[in-house]
Design a protein that fits this description.
It contains 9 helices and 15 strands. It is α/β, with parallel strands linked by helices and 333 residues long.
Length: 333
Amino acid sequence: MAAITGVGSGEGVRLGDIVLRNRLVTSSSLLGYGVANVPVFRWGMSPISNFVPLSSFGAITTRTLTVRPRDGHFTLRDDWKLSELPSLLQRYTRVLRHTRGGWINAFGWCNVGIDAYLRDYYPRTRDQRTIISLGGFSAEEFVTLVDKVNAAVPAGDIAAVEFNVSCHNVNFDFNQIIESVLAEAVPRSNHPVILKLSPDYDYLGHAELAAKHGVSALTAINTVKALRLDPRTGEPLLKNRFGGLSGPAIKPIALRVVAELRDAGVTLPIIATGGIRTFDDCREYFWAGADAVSLGSAAWFAHPMAGYALAPLAGLRLRRLVRQVERFTPPAR
C-alpha cells in the first residue's frame, strides 16, 4: 500500500501527490457537480446529500464531464420543479433500475459540458475538495479537457482530475484509446491524474500503463457491465440496453480487483469503490490494499422510494462514517 501521510494538523491526508481532507471520498455522478440549482429538492442528486455537508468528505467527485454538453440517455437539466416530478421519474425508469443487491444505470454521460461546469458550478464548490471526472472518446478530447481545467483551476485548488476511460453506457471500446489518452493527456495536466479502472477491461494491464505514464492514483472499480430485461416482453429495461451495475452486489468483485492489483505489484495509491455503506465495508477495502474509499450508490441511493423519507437519518449515518474513517489508520503494507 502506498504511504498515506498527514499533511498538517486538520489538513487531511496525502496519497502520493494527491491531497484529500480524509480517506472517504464520493464516487462520480452520484452527487452531480457538488452543487445543484435547486436548493432544497436536488433532483438528479441524492436527497441524502441535503443532510450531509459535502465539504466534510475527503473529496467530491463530479459527474463525468465531456468537451461538449451531452443529454446522454437522460437529461442535462438539474433545475426540475416539484410540479415536474412525474416527468422526471418517468425519465429515470429508462436509465436507472433497482436490482437485487444494487442498481443498474445507463445515464450515458449526461452532463453540462466542461465549460459550463467550470463557469457555473465549480466556483460554488470552493469549500469542497474536488475530483473533476473527465470523459472523452479520443486522446484529443482528453487533452482539450485537461487544458480547459488547467486554464480555469490553479494547481493545488482541486485534489485531482479523474480519467473515466471505462464507462459501459456510452457504447465505446476504450481499449482502443487508453494508451494514447494516458500518453498525451497526463503530461499536460497541472493536477494529479486518477485513472478509473473497469473490471470488464484488462485492469492489470491498464494499471501498468497508468504507472508508466505518470498517473497518480487508481480508482477501482467502475460499474460492472450488466443487463435487465422485462420478464413479460423480453425488452431491455434500460434505454441503452446494457448498463452499469453498482451497489453491494459488486463489492466482492471490487475487493478482488483491489487485492489482485496489490498481488500484481501495483504500488500506485488505490481509491476503492463498490458497495460501500458501513465502516466494516471500508475496513475490508483497507485490508485488501486500498488507500482511500469512495461512496457510491450503496450509500447515496434509497429504495424503495418511501425510504427517501429517511434521508435525514441516512445523513446522520454518513456523518458518523466520515468521523470513523477520519479516526482510522489503515494497516501498514
